[in-house]
């Protein structure tokens, strides 16, 4: 359910990352190659990007399919950024909250997306929802499963957790409350990317010291794309990528982390 992508690197027109590649996120809205659940992502889309010198990202989101929005095509042609997060949506429940339910969700410097679905929604997450401050529940942008997962992540971020730890702990809590959920989460603050592979595909492409792309699936056939093993936390910057098995993260935050393989090498498992 959904496809998403995050980028850190030199400034590029949005379209060079999201529209121009042969299997771009734009094309994945109707013809994904590796999507395991659903076939068309036409229930909304969005992109958030960072302008030089401004840590708070801008966003453009719409309810319908990205291919039907001529304004997006024009925007993507001229807007440049060195950091972005974009997503195309296949809704868990059709019609839920329109544009407000389209990723990326945002707060402060953060952008967030969820590729997946919560099993037993909404009943399954009621116990976790009760752990959130009432103000955070009442200020949720939408009533969909992804919005509540974002509220759980954001509560941890505001409590001082680093991006990767906030995602990891949220995934483990939600998976325990709603077994069978798919929880591929993607988060950036414009300087780092954190992501989880839990039930669906996740890939990354890196040129150490220059750029990093993390995506639901490759947007081209570059042989340097690497697939992230299932149940793994990815933490990335412009210089490196770190993979951590989620099953090895304990309550203290200790983990069996290891660097991602260099381009052309097989990932460790």
From TrEMBL:
Residues 245-269 are annotated as: Disordered. Catalyzes the hydrolysis of the gamma-glutamyl amide bond of hercynyl-gamma-L-glutamyl-L-cysteine sulfoxide to produce hercynylcysteine sulfoxide, a step in the biosynthesis pathway of ergothioneine. This is Gamma-glutamyl-hercynylcysteine sulfoxide hydrolase. SUPFAM superfamilies: N-terminal nucleophile aminohydrolases (Ntn hydrolases). Residues 2-269 form the Glutamine amidotransferase type-2 domain. Pathway: Amino-acid biosynthesis; ergothioneine biosynthesis. The gene is egtC. CDD domains: YafJ. It comes from Streptomyces apricus. GO terms for biological process: ergothioneine biosynthetic process. Residues 260-269 have a biased composition (Pro residues). Signal peptide: none annotated. Keywords: Glutamine amidotransferase, Hydrolase. Its EC number is 3.5.1.118. It catalyses: gamma-L-glutamyl-hercynylcysteine S-oxide + H2O = S-(hercyn-2-yl)-L-cysteine S-oxide + L-glutamate. One of its GO terms (molecular function) is hydrolase activity, acting on carbon-nitrogen (but not peptide) bonds, in linear amides. Transmembrane segments: none annotated. It comes from the Bacteria. Pfam families: GATase_4 (PF13230).
